[in-house]
Amino acid sequence: MKIAQIAPLYESVPPRLYGGTERVVSYLTEALIDLGHEVTLFASEDSVTRAELIPCAKTALRLNDSVRDPITYYVLMLERVRRQAHRFDIMHFHIDALHFPLFRDRSRQTVTTLHGRQDFIEMSMLYRSFPEMPLVSISLSQRQPLPDANFVGNVLHGLPIDLLKPTYDPRGGYLAFLGRLSPEKGPDRAIAIARAVGMPLKIAAKIDKADEPYFRATIAPLLVGGDVEFVGEINEKSKASFLGEARALLFPIEWPEPFGVVMIEAMACGTPVLAFGCGSVPEIVDNGVTGRIVSSFEEAIVALGDVLCMDRRRIRARFVERFSANRMAEDYLNVYRTVIQDRMIEAPISALPRMPQVGHRPRQVYVG
Prior knowledge:
- The protein is an alpha/beta fold and 368 residues long.
- It has 13 helices and 13 strands.
- It has helices spanning 20-34, 70-83, 100-103, 121-129, 140-143, 187-197, 212-219, 236-244, 261-268, 281-284, 297-308, 312-322, 325-345, and strands at residues 2-6, 38-43, 52-55, 90-93, 110-113, 135-137, 151-154, 175-180, 201-206, 228-230, 248-251, 273-276, 291-294.
């Protein structure tokens, strides 16, 4: 199959540091190649891939201080994709809905994965206006606010099996928080939980410009005392050690998390997860096996003891079973085939060769 992957330009594929969507696009692209498919990746030029790379920006936009208008780069990228659309059996978009108007007439040649939250009122308006665009959710929770959207699949994220090596005998003695340092991710609750149980906490987090005031006003004052260490952003190579040596990952979110890649990264390392049951968490954490799902600060304090005693080999085994990149790629291939088959069945008669008029009703012809 000839497949185009259209990635965000904010980060490279894979990203150098934080970047959940771009990381998933990278894992999917490489897994599809491993399965024998021909993949073209539209991304920034500093991306690293075995696919054919069509560069659409010199570097990741977040790392380029000279970029003033990111939309310009996306418009130019979409024009480039449009010109080459005839090359592909399917075009897989990971850029929200930016492409909808330009690719509406090719909707059955596209799949769009929704990577962000969908519980804003504008989202329903958007998908009602473009009902022909096939959508893929990354959790069933994510699609709940959109009962009438055109979902053609639900595909949980996956990681390469050998990406993060498991640690079965952690020696770090700390709890870990990994992700974006923003209010909805709950870093202040993670600090409170760690202090309540008397364990040190390490925070590896990205701070977006929009979250800098929150960091200065709320988090920075909590970093005194030596029991909480802020290590900043970490790259892929550092994750295995950071997560693997941790006794547990704290995921005390306060928002409808669409997926939460860090949870399966922890599981890949054999590290259990203590998570608040918002959004997709119940679909990802096997309660009592790979972690515990709680609903309050008090419940988290009580549950942490059980989490620290969980079988790390069993956690790793469940990760391999449920969250491999190959499983993700196979799931997407099933979605691609469904969309392609529907396109062939639903091809309008006006698009088919005109039959000669010979005095009798022409038989109906289907493309298939």
